[in-house]
Amino acid sequence: MDRDDQGAGPVPLYHRLYLVLRQQIEDGRFPAEVPLPGELEISKQHGVSRITVRRTMEMLTADGLIERRRGRGTFARSGALGTPITGQLSGLADNLSSYAEHTTVTLHSFEYIPASPIVAATLEIEEGGSVQKAVRTRSREGVPVSLLTTHVPAALGRTYTREELASGSLIRLLERGGARVDSADSTITAKLADAFSAPLLGVQVGQPLIALTRTVRDEKRRPIEYLSALYRPDQYEVRLSMSRDGSGSPNLWRYQQKPEV
Prior knowledge:
- Helices cover 28% and strands 33% of the residues.
- It has 2 domains: 13-76, Arc Repressor Mutant, subunit A, CATH 1.10.10; 85-245, Chorismate lyase.
- It is an alpha+beta fold and 261 residues long.
- The protein is built from 9 helices and 12 strands.
- It has helices spanning 13-26, 39-46, 50-62, 92-101, 117-123, 154-157, 162-165, 170-176, 197-201, and strands at residues 66-69, 73-76, 85-88, 104-114, 130-140, 143-153, 181-192, 208-218, 223-231, 236-239, 242-244, 253-255.
């Protein structure tokens, strides 16, 4: 094995280089009609060996992101990554409904379990109280977009079936069960794919993901859903619209619409 293949961290060098080149392809750094730099040039640019570069290029080829043309070189494939699904931080119900309409769902688990301390605190129920836990992936055109783990109070969870959740929107099912979705508190950060999430999302262990946690509340501010979601950043993006605050300070910004998530 190439001595610098693993590198100093938990993510191998070839995979880190793969993520960098993939992002550059997504950003349009390599026009479709211009060949990519050669292995030697890439190895010098990124400080890795040619063996590492070669392994990275094999991964990009396997994923359909580049193609080798005999006698001409290696080229980025135009449009190989497609257009990510966009999530706006406004219009909670409409955004979630639109997201559901553009993706298909696969239900991996559906069960009733005792609430952990974190789940109980978030849903404002007693620790150990019954909650419904579901794990789903959403895909677009066969490509996984997100991994969703939801916890719902048992009384609400029993208003719909496993089959209904496997084919519909959870928000719509909660509303059908009598809850009126009013607001949500969300946190967005980044996480690395682990041995559980990586195969479900079709990525390598250690690949960066968008991580979102959301507590959905009804009109009385009661929590009705706790969501932990992981999104592939090549398939999903979050946008913010802001304007100057109006106070005269050059450093103050405000949302053009009040964020609901």
